[in-house]
Specification:
alpha+beta, binds adenosine-5'-diphosphate, globular, Ribosomal Protein S5, domain 2, five-stranded antiparallel β-sheet, 10 strands, 244 residues
């Protein structure tokens, strides 16, 4: 949660949010599988005003060799925000936040990837945030799953992600930047719908036990919606009429 702006109306008397959405309505989501010819797999996502590109490379040799594991493959994730991705120019050096989000996304993807199938090698996931508007870790995790699948990496399931949260004492789906800054809680959820397993759950803010449960439920339902779009993106590339 950033600084809370008490003057901002996050939910009006008709139950409409600051960007015109209903409480359970996600932002507009567009996912494209593929697109980068030099990557083994790639994807592009627009999640509201978030715009994120993901490139996947591997499985490939690990350098230096001592970083490899003879029993299993390793996943390496770099989440990077372009200096122009936010209104106020972001410092180009990797921030603590980017290092933390890279780790969070890696740990959320690991249960989905069959790393044991490619020992001694690494799969690299490069995430470039071109435009950020709240919820980039969820959008990036969603896109990274599609890029891994596009690369043909063996997976148990894809991880779909979206944040639920709380504004004006109401549980909402898909927290935008203003709601993240001025709202009461933000809960990013990553979920594997076929396996019914949560791989990412964070909470910034304060919730009662009932609200917590509702937030998880709303987040999981949102992930199921996102999952359909991930599958559609792969379907469009591999079975659709796309020319590229
Ligand atoms: P997430 O993007 O996953 O919600 P945060 O809660 O840390 O992660 O960030 C919320 C939003 O704050 C980001 O999506 C972005 O729009 C904005 N933001 C993050 N870092 C910066 C920064 N250095 N300068 C300005 N805005 C930022």
């Amino acid at each position: 949660m950033g600084g809370r702006d008490a003057t901002m109306v996050l939910l009006d008397e008709n139950g409409i949010r600051c960007d015109g959405r209903k409480v359970d309505e996600p932002r507009k989501i567009m996912i494209k599988a593929g697109g980068l010819k030099n990557a083994d797999g790639s994807s592009y996502i627009e999640f509201g005003d978030n715009k994120i590109l993901v490139g996947v490379f591997g499985p490939r040799d690990v350098h230096p060799k001592h970083m490899s594991n003879t029993d299993t493959g390793i996943l390496r994730v770099r989440y990077h925000m372009e200096p122009f991705s936010v209104g106020e120019r972001k410092r180009p050096a990797p921030s603590r936040r980017e290092i933390e989000i890279s780790k969070v996304i890696k740990e959320a993807l690991e249960p989905a990837v069959m790393l044991e199938k490619f020992p001694r090698t690494a799969v690299d996931v490069f995430i470039e945030v071109l435009q950020a508007d709240g919820g980039t870790r969820c959008a990036a995790l969603t896109a990274a799953s599609v890029a891994l699948a596009d690369a043909g990496i063996p997976m148990r399931d894809m991880v779909a992600a979206i944040a639920s949260g709380k504004v004006a004492d109401t549980i909402i789906l898909d927290v935008n930047n203003e709601e993240d800054q001025a709202g009461q809680a933000d809960m990013p959820v990553g979920y594997m719908p076929s396996l019914k397993k949560i791989t990412l759950l964070q909470l910034d803010g304060v919730l009662t036990p009932e609200e917590y449960k509702k937030c998880v439920d709303v987040g999981v339902k949102g992930c199921e919606l996102v999952y359909e779009l991930q599958k559609q993106a792969l379907h469009d590339k591999y079975f659709g009429n796309r020319k590229d």
